Amino acid sequence: MTKSLQKLVDGVLSRPAYQSFLDQGGFEFMQSCFEDLKVPTLIVAGEEDKIIPQADVIKLSEKLPDAQLDWLARCGHFPPSEQPEELLFLIQNFLKHN
């Protein structure tokens, strides 16, 4: 992660509004928005994501009936910026098989 991206992430994580969102069940609400998906779904998460805990990503993938979860090494919350080639490979592979 670049220094400027790390600064942005740290800024988001330190905001009281972000913590309040999580404390009031914000992530659970977001998960509920996806529960009705009935199509193959690719979930890509960074192994070093400091914004969404890995346990929450796993829970989301388990709630979707046809989800594929892939983890990107050396990646935080912004896969298109941090690991663009690897992300492209995962998307192309997913589309090829679905």
UniProtKB/TrEMBL annotation:
Segments forming domain Serine hydrolase: 14-84
Glycoprotein listed as a keyword: no
Protein origin, superkingdom: Bacteria
Keywords, in A-Z order: Hydrolase
Listed SUPFAM superfamilies: alpha/beta-Hydrolases
UniProt GO MF annotations: hydrolase activity
Pfam (any one): FSH1
PANTHER family the record matches: ALPHA_BETA-HYDROLASES SUPERFAMILY PROTEIN, HYDROLASE
Descriptive protein name: Alpha/beta hydrolase
Organism for this UniProt entry: Atlanticothrix silvestris CENA357
UniProt lineage: Bacteria, Bacillati, Cyanobacteriota, Cyanophyceae, Nostocales
